[in-house]
TrEMBL record:
Domain of life of the source: Eukaryota
A Gene Ontology cellular-component term: nucleus
GO biological process: intracellular signal transduction
Source organism: Medicago truncatula
Lineage, opening ranks: Eukaryota, Viridiplantae, Streptophyta, Embryophyta, Tracheophyta
Domain named Protein kinase: residues: 112-360
Chain's gene name: 25489903
Gene3D superfamilies (UniProt xref): Transferase(Phosphotransferase) domain 1 (1.10.510.10)
Protein family membership: Belongs to the protein kinase superfamily. CAMK Ser/Thr protein kinase family. CaMK subfamily.
Protein name per its UniProtKB record: Calcium-dependent kinase family protein
InterPro entries: CDPK_Ser/Thr_kinases (IPR050205), Kinase-like_dom_sf (IPR011009), Prot_kinase_dom (IPR000719), Protein_kinase_ATP_BS (IPR017441), Ser/Thr_kinase_AS (IPR008271)
Signal peptide residues on this chain, from the entry's feature table: none
Amino acid sequence: MRKKRKGSETDASTDLGVVNLDLDHAGSVGSSNLKSHYSLEDCCRLKKRCKEDADIHIEFEGSFKSRLAGIATAPPFGTSSLITPTRGLKRKIGCIDVATQMGRKKKIDDDYVTGEAIGQGKFGSVYLCRSRGSGAESACKTLKKGEETVHREVEIMQHLSGHSGVVTLQAVYEEAECFHLVMELCSGGRLIDQMLKEGPFSEQRAANTLKEVMLVIKYCHDMGVVHRDIKPENILLTKLGKLKLADFGLAMRISEGQNLTGLAGSPAYVAPEVLSGKYSEKVDIWSAGVLMHALLVGSLPFKGDSLEAVFEAIKTVKLDFQAGMWESISKPARDLIGRMLTRDTSARISADEVLRHPWILFYTAQSMKMLPIKIKLKNQTGAASRQLVASPEPRLGRNMIDNGSVSELPSSESCYSDDQDECALIDALATAISHVRISEPKRTRLCSPTGPIVQQGSSNMKANNLCKAF
Ligand SMILES: Nc1ncnc2c1ncn2[C@@H]1O[C@H](COP(=O)(O)OP(=O)(O)OP(=O)(O)O)[C@@H](O)[C@H]1O
């Protein structure tokens, strides 16, 4: 993690006292399948709200107020982690230099022609806009002032902008009541929509998708930012299909060794430690693990009929990656998800470790079709090392490779006799996995979540519910 920057909003004693519980809809796409799994349309929209004093409380809309109040985290007495919007804006978004300065002098209408709405968020619509100068199209998100999170979102977007995996903030226009964020246009839609349209991804595609997501999560963490709302609704695609992480409305600055508190995130993706106390950037790894689950098997791992039930599942359900749909998924994939969805945060791997995991490496090697993969087969008689080439033949089964360039990474059991190389590759991967090092020496190394893992009741696994889960 990066060291604390000037202007960082958190410190070691920070307690946000914020409950930003996004009872998330899949969006405005008009399919009932896209509704979240607990009638979220009836649920509250918990406001992204930060307050700076010890009176911080959680504001809920609708009937969830009392139900959620018990799990809200109040800030410790006397701490004040947040800066008042009135005096703090300049300081907090001091790095928004060129764009903001320009924006303060000019109005957005001077520079852009606003077009149709292209997205609906909790805090307003996102519109298409066209530069009067260049004619280039962008997306414009208007955020009403007043919420601390709004200021923070602007600041963090600017802080992260420039990475190819982050939606670029092109300009900020500040008005008395609102900010207009002019962003790079992601006209390829959202990852969630692809997932719902296409069903479970092949392992190769899932690995490539996860890798892109993890690269940007790693970047955020290196930059001292925890996103706190990793989910496919917040992953947008460009026209060319490049993934971009969006919606930094819940993101927080964090320094090495710091902890955040406060309930924030989207229920199905929220990490267990968020529900029970202090947490760190590792919450993003958990959420990415939930995403990986959804990518590979088309359903969310933690479900329930109510918010409490979902949270209870997150805290207690033991997933079984050895049974059911997971039987058709390769062992390295199961190993990785087990390491991401472990409740023991010290055993949960980091973004960097995810990126170095053999499953990711295997499926995302740029030229794996062309180049032999040199595998060192440790502890195997008479085979100090072998050269293996990933088979170009597509294999039968659900997780076919999309482009035919690389075959499915099968489980060891499913290896055919003429696939000795591939079998050896799997074994080698298994060996490699057992040697994956967790960087901090004191960490417990677990190959699976902290206990036996059992799927939830079959009612949750019905095909019709798979999409609803999002
Ligand atoms: N840069 C962009 N290019 C294209 N569409 C975008 C862009 N940014 C946002 N959108 C669209 O607008 C929607 C809402 O944007 P965003 O998630 O940033 O707003 P929000 O108010 O924070 O929403 P949420 O309710 O998810 O928290 C997105 O789901 C997406 O469809």
